[in-house]
Design a protein that fits this description.
Length: 294
Amino acid sequence: FPHLWQSPKAYRRHGWTLAISGYTAPMPENPDQELNGSVVTVDFVRHRNAMLVRADLGPLFTDFYLHVADNKLHYTPEQAALFKTALAAFTLHCASRPLNEHIAGTLNFQEPRLNLFLAGDNEDCTVTGRLFTENVREAAENVFFSDIVPRRGAEPRRSVVNFQGGDVFAAVGGYYARSEQQPVRFFDLGNDSYAMLVAQPDCDLAWFASVDAEGVRNPAAAETVGHIQSRNYGWHCGCTQQKILGAIAPAFRADPEGLFGDGETIRVECPRCAAGHTLTREAMEAYLAESGKV
C-alpha cells in the first residue's frame, strides 16, 4: 500500500525503504508487549441517530513521538503535526469499525509533496504509520487511498478518493461522504482529546450539523447516550528483522549485488513505521538457506 504513491524505483542501497505490498497486511499476530495506549469510547446518541467516538489520545501521541526519537526520524514540526492529526482521525475511524478488520490508508499530498501512511489492526487494537517525503509520485490532485481487509487472509476492499487542500479532517470527511456514504465530523477538543461524530440512518442532520465541541465533549448533558464499547489502542507495528528478511528475500535472490553492492550490510526502513533495521549479507544468505529458497 505505501508503494502505490512512491516512484517506480524499487530500492536504494542506503536507507533502503521497502516497497512491498505484502507489508500492508497485518504484522503482529499479537503485540509483543503490554501496550500503554489510549482508551477510545464508542457511544450512540439516541433520538439523533449518530455514533460518537471519543478519546484522549495523549498516550498514543507520546508513543508516536518516542518512536520518532528512538529511530532518529527527521520530521519537521509541520510534518509531525500533520501526521498527529491523521493519526487522531485514523484511530477514531478504526474504533468505529468491526473488531476483525485490518485497515490501511494513505493520504497523498501534492503540496508539500508527501505521503502519510497509517495501518490499523482491529484484532489487537494497534495502530502504526509513517511519513514518506522522498520519491513521492506527482499527481494532478491529492489522493486518499484506503484498504480494508474484513478479516485475516481475506481480499482487501479498496477505495480511492481525491481531495483538495491540506486539511486532514476534510480529506477523511470526503472519504466518508463518497466511499462510506455517511456524513462525518471531527472535533479537536483540546489537550490531545478528539471526537468523531458519524451520522447513521435517519440521523437528525440539523442537529448533526449544528452540535458544537461542548456538545460532543459532554453529550449526556443534553442527549440520551448509550454506551456501545471501549477499546484500548496502542502504537505497535510488529516489524522484526526476520520479517524484513522475508520481505526483501526475492530482491536479494534476483540481484544480491544490486542490493548490497560492495558492502556487507544495508540499512532498511520498515515501510509501515519507518523503524530502522540493519541487515547483513550473511544473515540474508542464512535466511534463504533455512527457508529452502536457494
